[in-house]
From TrEMBL:
It is found in: Cytoplasm. Belongs to the type III pantothenate kinase family. This is Type III pantothenate kinase. It comes from Ruegeria spongiae. The active site is at residue 109. It is an enzyme of class 2 (transferase). ATP binds at residues 6-13, 132. It catalyses: (R)-pantothenate + ATP = (R)-4'-phosphopantothenate + ADP + H(+). InterPro entries: ATPase_NBD, Type_III_PanK. A monovalent cation. Ammonium or potassium. Homodimer. The lineage of its organism: Bacteria, Pseudomonadati, Pseudomonadota, Alphaproteobacteria, Rhodobacterales.
Length: 259
């Protein structure tokens, strides 16, 4: 079985793929100081709790934080006796290499989202991922990542207001009932919620204009449902796009000889 690991700047997610479905999804915060033994203690406890019997034979990793990869490699080697496939490393083949400026390192999560979205929906897509950053990935007709947009994430914007302005509290995102807030919390929620609705609409409209062919918008990430239920920003919503993309890239490498 395959253990797929998606390491973002905020959270790290492990999912076990049995070839047909994900058996479980485990989430922890991302810390480069977490050791291989600490990962295993956490992982083994949860797998036991859910009653899952999984013989892990393969590990695939996407990490936007380079420093955590070392301990995850040790984890894979020590506990599953395998050498993980790490997206973005030269020995990890991609179904469609990105077409970007020379020397540009595309975030592995964006390459993985591209592969997952193309596998499910074909090309000519905008993938919007609401993570630490809100990213827009343009997936060309042939499935290649050909560029995109990076904006500060929703929670990052809320946190930035709190950190920079003495009188502004930390606020959790939610859909405000109205636009004109009558207290500080409502004012912040309105600014960030409706601001992001506008940001996503404007960016997608401009990408479509520049791209010059019809495109579908795929939304993913923890906050995508909140925006989708109240603003219909996407044509398609996917709750496991990054995990699916990891299985696609893993399968591609198995079939094409790198693993
Ligand atoms: N209604 C909500 N309000 C606040 N946070 C939410 C809500 N729904 C989901 N979340 C948060 O979304 C996060 C999951 O998002 P996701 O995994 O896409 O990105 P992330 O983990 O924040 O970022 P990254 O992948 O860059 O580390 C979780 O931390 C979860 O707490
Ligand atoms: C933009 C983030 C932080 C989103 O997770 C990640 O994809 C990343 O670190 N990217 C590197 C730069 C790029 O993708 O162009
Ligand atoms: K993510």
């Amino acid at each position: 079985m395959l253990l797929a690991i998606d390491c973002g700047n905020t959270n790290t997610v492990f999912s076990i793929w049995d070839g047909r479905e994900f058996l479980c999804t485990l989430r922890t915060s991302t810390h480069h100081s977490r050791t291989a033994d600490a990962y295993f203690t956490w992982y083994a406890t949860l797998v036991k709790h859910y009653g899952i019997e999984a013989e892990i034979t393969d590990v695939v990793i996407s990490s936007t934080v380079p420093r955590v990869v070392f301990n995850l490699r040790v984890f894979a080697d020590r506990f599953f006796g395998c050498r993980p496939l790490v997206v973005g490393k030269p020995d990890c083949l991609l179904p469609f290499p990105p077409r970007v400026d020379e020397g540009t390192q595309v975030g592995p999560d964006r390459l993985v989202n591209t592969a997952g979205a193309f596998d499910r929906h074909g090309g000519d897509l905008i993938v919007v991922d609401f993570g630490t950053a809100t990213t827009f990935d343009v997936v060309a007709h042939d499935g290649a990542y050909v560029g995109g947009v990076i904006s500060p994430g929703v929670n990052l914007s809320l946190e930035a207001l709190h950190l920079a302005a003495a009188a502004l509290p930390h606020v959790d995102i939610s859909k405000p009932q109205k636009v004109i807030g009558t207290n500080t919390v409502e004012c912040i929620q309105s600014g960030v919620f409706w601001g992001y609705v506008g940001l996503v609409r404007e960016v997608c409209e401009r990408i479509r204009g520049e791209y010059g062919a019809p495109m579908k918008i795929v939304g993913t990430g923890g906050l995508a449902p909140l925006f989708q239920q109240s603003a219909q920003l996407f044509d398609i919503f996917e709750d496991d796009l990054t995990m699916h993309g990891l299985t696609v890239i893993h399968r591609y490498n198995k079939e094409n000889g790198s693993q």
